[in-house]
Amino acid sequence: MRTSAPPTVCSGRSTAALLTTLLPLTVSLLVWASQSQAQESRADVATNTSSSSASRAMSVLQNASDGIDATQPGSKPVIYVNNPQLLREMQEQSLLHHTFRLSAGGVPSKEEDGILEGGIPLLERSATLGSQLRHLANNELGVTHMQATFDELPYSNLERKEEETVKEMVQSLERKFSLYSRLLTEMCETLEEQFTLDEPRLGREAQEYRPCCLIPDNYLEYKSHFGTRVNEELWCDTGFGSGDHLLPDDFFVAPYNLTEMFALNLRRYPTIKWQYFMSTNGLHTEYPAHRPGTSLGSDCGQSSRHRHVYEGTLRPRGRNIVLLYDLGEALTPRLLLTAKAIGHQVVSTLTLQDNIAVVGVAGNVARPAAACMRSAMTPATHDVKQTARHFMDFLEIQNEPTNHTLGLMTALNIISQSANSSALLVYVSRGVVSSQHQVHTIMTSLASKLDTIKTRVIISTFGLGLLKHEFSLEEQFLAALTKQDFKMFDIEYSKTPETGKFVGLDSTLNVSPFIHNMYDVVEEPPLPKEGALRDLVISDPYWDDDSSETVVSMSKIVRTEEGRLLGMIGIDLPLANLLEDVTHFTSPAHSYAFVMDAQGNVLGHPKLGRPESWTLPLVPTDVMLLEQTPGLSSIRGEFFSTHSGHTFLHGRAHNGDQLDKLHYWWHQSESNGWVMVVAWHDSGLPRRRLSRSVRPLPPTALFHRLDLLSPSEARVCRHFNQMATLDGSTLFLSVGSYVSPLSQLASGVESLGAVQSITAYLSDNTQLIANPGLRLGVRTDATALYQISDFWKKQHEDSDLSKYIVRRYAAASSGVAIMYPGTLLDRSFDPRSQSWYLSALSNPGRVVVSPPYLDPGGAGYIITASHTVYQGESAAMHSPADPVAAVLAADFTVGYFYKILLDLEPACGGDDIFDQERKVRCFLVNSEGYLVAHPSLLDPTRSSGPSVNIPPHITHQEPVLSMELLGRVEGWLTKASCGRWWHGASERHYSLQVPANQVVTLPATSNQVLSWSEINLNLLIVITNAHHSSAYHEDSIE
C-alpha cells in the first residue's frame, strides 16, 4: 500500500497519524524480522505466507501502540532505523522510546558493534566468508599441499649476475640485427646483379605486374603470425593500381629469384613478418601475398604500406610539412575524394622524425580539434597521424570562394614559428582565381611573407582536375606558386626562389606514384658514404595496421655499382621478437627488466605487458612515468650518456613497509641506441631457486598435446568445448619457457618429435639428454608443480564442490603451467599475462577473486579464485615479502559465489531476488568495484548481461550507492580517467577502499558502511535494503 507524504511533524500530532506514516516502513522492516526468526528456527523463509506477514505487521503495530518492548528475548530481533527524517519523528514520540533500539549512525556503540539492520551480524558473516574462502583455497586449490611441497624441496643460492644478464640481452639483440642485415645484403646483391645499364629490365609487360587486390579469395588463408589472410607461396605488387593503365617507361621489377629468397628466408627464420622491395618509380613488391588496406579514396592497388620506411631509409633526417587544403565552392565531391586520397598518402610517408600540420581554407581557416595541431607543426607520432587522417576524412566543400591568400599566410605563419632549416608546403587546390589581378595580389603577399621567414620554404601543388600540359589560368597560378615565379608578375623578391613540384590530378587512381618521390624537391637521397654502401637502417617501432601488431622495419638502400639508386629492400620484424629476452625475463628474486629507446621512451616494461599482447599502438611514454622511484630523475641521463653502468636508489620496499635499495644495471645497443635495464629490489632476502637435484618429472606425466597421445596413454574426452582427460593433469609450457619465445610462437603447434624431446628431457634422471631449448628453471618448476596432480584428481572425485569447479590449474614465473582436467591449450596462451595470475602476485598470501568473465573453454561465465605459493622455507614460516614460487587457481561457476552469499545470509535470497524493489539485496564486490556476485548476474530476463570484455561494475548496477561513495571526501570510491580523444573513447578505473572496523553513515541517504580489516582487503559484502541504505564489509581474505 502506498501512502501520500505525511505533513510536517508538530507537537500535537496524533498517534494514529504517526502509525499511518510508519506503516510502510514497519512492513519493510518486519520482513527482516521474519527472515531472521526463520533462520534461528532453521525453517524456510519462503514458506511464510503473505497473510502471516501481514498478521505480524499488525501485531507489531499493536505492540508499538501498547508500549510493548519488542527487543526483549522472545520478541522481535533488534531493528536499526537509519533514515534521519524518521529518526527525528520517532524521537519526538515518547511512546516509541522503548519500542525500538535506535542507532543514529556513525560509529556504533560497543554492544551494537557488527549488528546490521534486521539483526544481521555482518562482522560475523564477513569472518565466516573469509574462513570459507580460506578453506576453499587450502582444500580445493591445494595451497597448503603445494606450499608443503615447496617447503620440502631443496634450494640453491643464486649469484648476482644482473650485469652479465643485461649485457647478454643486448648481445642477443645485436645478433638479430646482424642476422637480418646479412639477409638484406644478400637480397641487395641479387637485385644489383639483375640490373645492368646495358640491358636493363625496363618496360615490363603489364601482365607481369601482379596487383595484390586481385588475388582470389580462395588463394588466401588466415595465418595468426601475420594477423591476416596470406598466401606464403605468392608475392604481389602495389603502387600502380589494379594494372588497368600503362606502366611508366622506367618501370623496374623485382626479379623472380628475389621473391624466391623471400620464401626461403621465411622458412629459415619464421619470426620474419613482411619482406618487400620498393623501387624509385613507386613499385611495392611484398611477400607473402595478401590484400593490404587502402587509404580513403584510393584504388585497391594504391596501398600506402611502408611509404614511411622508404622515406626513412632514403632521407633519415626527417622533413617538415604543412598540408593545405582548398575547400572552396569550385571543388566537386569527386575531386574532394581525390584531395583526401592525396592527404592520406602524404601522411603515410611520415616518420617520427617528421613534423606535420594540416589546414583547410575557404572563406575561413579550418584546423584540427587537437590543441597541439592548431598553430604549429607537430611530431608525426601515430596519434598525430590518426588525428590528421580524421580531420581530412571529415572535410567538406564550403559554399564560398577560396581565400588563397588567407590559406597561404596561415600555412607560412605555422612554418615561421618553427626553427627548422626547411619546410615543404603542399597545397591541394582547384586553383580557381577570378583574374590575373587576383593572382598578382596573391603572389605579392606570398613574396612579402617569404622574405620575412628564415626557413627555406618549398611549395608543391596538386592541381585537382587540372592536366599539366593544358594551359589555363588555374594551372598558371598553381605553377607560379610551385616555382615561386615572382618575376613573371614583376614582384621584387630578395631570396633565390625554391622550385617545388606541380602535379595535375583528376582521379584517385594516379595518386600513389606522384607521392612516392615528392620529397626529392626538398632533399635528394644522399649518396652513401665511402665504405657504407649498405648501411642498415632500423626504424622506430610502429603499429602495422594490416597485422595489428607493433613491428620494427630493417632496410637497406639498393644501388648499382655505378651509384644509381634502384630502391629499398626491407624486412619487418615483430617488436616482441626483438625484445623477447627483456619482456620474458623472469627471476626468483624481486628483479625485472625494461627497455627504452634513445629518447627515453619505454618500449617494453612489465607494467605495459608483453608486445605480442598489445591491441593498440604504444603511446610514447617516458621512463619517469613508469619508474616512479624517488631520485630517478637525477640518474636518468646516465642511461644514455654512458654505454653501460650500475647505480642504485633508495625506493619503496617490495612489501611496502620499509625503504630498500633499488639497483639498476644497464647496457646500450650500438646499432640503434636502445637501452636495456635490469632492476633489482634489494630487500635483504636470500636469492634462491629450486636445486637441480630435484627429481625429474615422472614418466607418466601427460603433456597438453592430447591429440598426439594414443588411447593407451590417456582416455580423452570433451570438457565443454576443449579436448580433455580425467586421467591426470597436463603439463603446458608457454612460449616464455623457451630461450627464444617468439620463434616457438611463429613455428606453430608443437610437433610429435618436439613433444617427445621435451618430455624426455623433463623426465630424464640421468641429466644426459640435451636441453631442447628450455630456459633455466623450467625443468624444476615442472617437477614441483606436477606434484599436486594426484591431490587435484582426488579432490575432483571426492569433493562436494567439484560440481561448481570448472578446472584447477597452477603456473610458475618460468611459464610452466599444469591443469586438471588435463586440457589441450593454444600455443599462444601465457598464464603469466592473465589477470588471475597478476592479481595474485599483487596480493601475495590472500585469496584473490576475479569478477565474472566469459570462459574461453566454453563453460560460460566463470569466476576465478587464485592464491600464491611461496618459495620453500625449512621452518615453513612465510610472509608476503617472500618470493612467490607459483600461483594456484580454480574456475568456479558464477552461481557458486551467489550460493556462498545465500548460505551466509538467507535474507539475501527469496523468490524476488531479481526484483529491484525487494527489501534486501546482497552482493559481493572487489576492491576495484567489479561485482563478483549480484542478483543481476543471475537474472535470465535481463537484456544486457555482463560484457565479454567489460565485467559488471558497481557503478552500473548500483549507481545510487556509487554516486554517494564517489562524493565522499574521504575517497572511499575513487575514479581515474584516461581518454583517447582521437578514438573518441575513454577508460575509467576505480578503487574501492572503505574505512576499517567502524560503522559510518552516508549523509545523503543514511547508507551504512561497515567494514572489517586485518591486513589488505580484496572482497566486500554489501547488503542494501529497500530504503537505499547499504552496509558493506571489506573482507580480509588471506
Automatic annotation (TrEMBL):
Domain of life: Eukaryota
An MF annotation (GO) of this entry: voltage-gated calcium channel activity
InterPro entries in the cross-refs: Ca_channel_alpha-2/delta, Sensor-like_sf
Membrane-spanning intervals of the chain: none
CDD domains associated with the record: PDC1_HK_sensor (cd18773), PDC2_HK_sensor (cd18774)
Keyword Nucleus attributed: no
Keyword rRNA-binding: no
Keywords linked to the UniProt accession: Signal
GO cellular component: voltage-gated calcium channel complex
Cleavable signal peptide: 1-38
Cross-referenced PANTHER family: VOLTAGE-DEPENDENT CALCIUM CHANNEL SUBUNIT ALPHA-2/DELTA-RELATED, VWFA AND CACHE DOMAIN-CONTAINING PROTEIN CG16868
Designated name of the protein: VWFA domain-containing protein
